């Protein structure tokens, strides 16, 4: 008997599967995030270099920009998150996308004008016009960063959850993929724009970034609209605050249906209030002025009352560290004799281990559950950072506790010769200053003294290895916030979380300012490891409250799913 012909619709084949994937909301979200992150990384790298070039190879403008950015997110994080909660998803995504890209475009054009006509601007109005341009550049760049913060909150903390639906494994895979995109763009985007600026000029770099953001904005806008159309659930947004206001109105209507005498009394009181419209206007103006402060307070109170508060605080404490690939650590590495090419290779290795951390997260979550994945990640990170602690006491370490950490600051105040300070990697190449190796300045034409690389090698080995645990832990806390924060508070809670991250990041910069000489860097390493340990202790406390005595027992996937339910995160279950 001949078999019936197979239905082609039931087996679409390889081509059909590929087409289905590349047109899915998940892939379009990845593509939009890739374009957005690429533009962000190019701009964040380039703006720091541009500010250094503009101000005579000084780090003053870069430091001011970093302080303004950190302070703005710290103060406005909760307010931005509250706006995300109260506004429709599509409007938030589109508005933040347009504001971010238009700000970068305007800032790029302004920087081009300053680079081309800096000499003329310097002579106009005794240089005040040039100072105004600097202020405008920092202000517009800060606006772009705030809009980028809003974009990150709405896409990475809200849209991803809705697109994943009720499938937690899909949510974990999407979070991990987004982090892999971040890791790759962190390395490739600065390399690309750096080549353009090296072989071209800062003006060409500004023009390229402005053009990129203009094209990227149009493509991202279309991708957002496609994702919104393919995911009908994005159109439905629960807002408890609106529901509460509607309930209050219903209560008022019910109270109005009272006895005639009581109704007459209420009418008299209402008439008495109507006769004083100016007082009502004053109260309304005062309430509007106080609304941002109330939102700020309510956001932090709501964050404190979350069941995942300790997990979020644990993540924030990991930002109080010099053990990362920022200008501080790379500047210290340069003082220890590492070349720029070596540092670029180390940064590439850190990206690879970061991607390994995202892979480890998905595997551990399936085997041990979400909460225990954070515990294992914390142990892995702290174990790797032991190498950093050992490096402080190994040959080649410039640690010298007899040198005051404030010697450089006091030397500058009293106009004496300061100790050599840690400088970012770009400074020696852009200024032509003689290099600094292990705390001693080299004169031109002299060969550098041999510096033991044992200490700095162990330091970077620990930093690179710790990225596996760091990114796995970051993904764990991210998904805990996504799963355990109610939909109507996702924006404000994640806004406060960003504020906490920036606060601890700001403290780590202040720590470096107070102890900038290489002799004190070992002390900064020990302080950094201590803060990381405190962060993981907070997470352990959260895990113990969540899982109780079973905190160290790995379950099967079915048992783990029950253990990870949001209800089990209540502190009262311990």
From TrEMBL:
Location of the protein in the cell: Basolateral cell membrane; Membrane
Main subcellular location of this protein, as a coarse class: membrane
GO molecular-function term, one example from the UniProt record: metal ion binding
Annotated TM spans: 59-84, 96-119, 125-147, 307-325, 345-363, 375-394, 450-470, 520-542
Keyword Ribosomal protein carried by entry: no
UniProt topology in membrane: Multi-pass membrane protein
Any single GO CC term annotated in Swiss-Prot or TrEMBL for this entry: basolateral plasma membrane
Keywords, alphabetical: Cell membrane, Ion transport, Iron, Membrane, Metal-binding, Transmembrane, Transmembrane helix, Transport
Chain's role: May be involved in iron transport and iron homeostasis.
Family per record: Belongs to the ferroportin (FP) (TC 2.A.100) family. SLC40A subfamily.
Name the UniProt record assigns to this protein: Solute carrier family 40 member
Species this protein is from: Phrynocephalus forsythii
């Amino acid at each position: 008997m001949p078999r019936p012909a197979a239905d082609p619709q039931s087996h679409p084949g390889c081509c059909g599967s590929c087409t289905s994937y590349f047109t899915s909301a998940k892939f379009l979200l990845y593509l939009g995030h890739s374009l957005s992150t690429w533009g962000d990384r190019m701009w964040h790298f380039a703006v720091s270099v541009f500010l250094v070039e503009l101000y005579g190879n000084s780090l003053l403008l870069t430091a001011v920009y970093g302080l303004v950015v950190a302070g703005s997110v710290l103060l406005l994080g909760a307010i931005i998150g509250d706006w995300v909660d109260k506004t429709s998803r599509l409007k938030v995504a589109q508005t933040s996308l347009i504001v971010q890209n238009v700000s970068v475009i305007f800032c790029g054009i302004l920087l081009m004008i300053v680079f081309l006509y800096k000499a003329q601007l310097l002579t106009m109005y005794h240089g005040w016009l040039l100072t105004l341009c600097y202020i405008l550049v920092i202000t517009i760049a800060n606006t772009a960063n705030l809009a980028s913060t809003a974009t990150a909150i709405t896409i990475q903390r809200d849209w991803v959850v809705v697109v994943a639906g009720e499938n937690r494994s899909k949510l974990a895979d999407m979070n991990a993929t987004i982090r892999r995109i971040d890791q790759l763009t962190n390395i490739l985007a600065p390399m690309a724009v750096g080549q353009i600026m090296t072989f071209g000029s800062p003006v060409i770099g500004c023009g390229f970034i402005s053009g990129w953001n203009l094209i990227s904005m149009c493509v991202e806008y279309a991708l957002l609209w496609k994702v919104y159309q393919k995911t009908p659930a994005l159109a439905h947004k629960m807002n408890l605050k609106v529901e509460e206001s509607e309930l209050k109105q219903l209560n008022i209507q019910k109270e109005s249906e009272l006895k005639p005498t009581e109704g007459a009394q209420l009418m008299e009181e209402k008439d008495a209030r109507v006769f004083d419209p100016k007082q009502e206007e004053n109260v309304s103006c005062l309430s509007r002025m106080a609304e941002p402060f109330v939102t700020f307070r309510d956001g932090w109170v709501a964050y404190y009352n979350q069941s995942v508060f300790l997990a979020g605080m644990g993540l924030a404490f990991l930002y109080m560290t010099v053990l990362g690939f920022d200008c501080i650590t790379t500047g210290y590495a340069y003082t220890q004799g590492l070349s720029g090419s070596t540092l670029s290779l180390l940064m590439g290795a850190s990206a690879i281990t970061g991607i390994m951390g995202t892979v480890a997260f998905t595997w551990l979550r399936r085997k041990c559950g979400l909460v225990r994945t954070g515990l294992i990640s914390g142990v892995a990170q702290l174990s790797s950072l032991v190498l950093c602690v050992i490096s402080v006491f190994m040959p080649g370490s410039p640690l010298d506790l007899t040198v005051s950490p404030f010697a450089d600051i006091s030397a500058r105040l009293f106009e004496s010769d300061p100790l050599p300070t840690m400088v970012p990697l770009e400074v020696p190449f852009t200024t032509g200053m003689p290099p600094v190796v292990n705390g001693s300045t080299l004169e031109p034409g002299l060969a550098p003294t041999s510096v033991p690389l044992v200490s700095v090698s162990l330091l970077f080995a620990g930093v690179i290895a710790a990225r596996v645990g760091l990114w796995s832990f970051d993904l764990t806390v991210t998904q805990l916030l996504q799963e355990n924060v109610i939909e109507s508070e996702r924006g404000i809670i994640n806004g406060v979380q960003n504020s906490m991250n920036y606060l601890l990041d700001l403290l780590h910069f202040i720590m470096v300012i107070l102890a900038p000489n290489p002799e004190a860097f070992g002390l900064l390493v020990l302080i950094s490891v201590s803060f990381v340990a405190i962060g993981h202790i907070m997470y352990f406390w959260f895990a113990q409250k969540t899982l109780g005595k079973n905190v160290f027992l790995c379950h099967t996937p079915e048992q783990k799913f029950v253990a990870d339910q949001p209800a089990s995160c209540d502190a009262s279950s311990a």
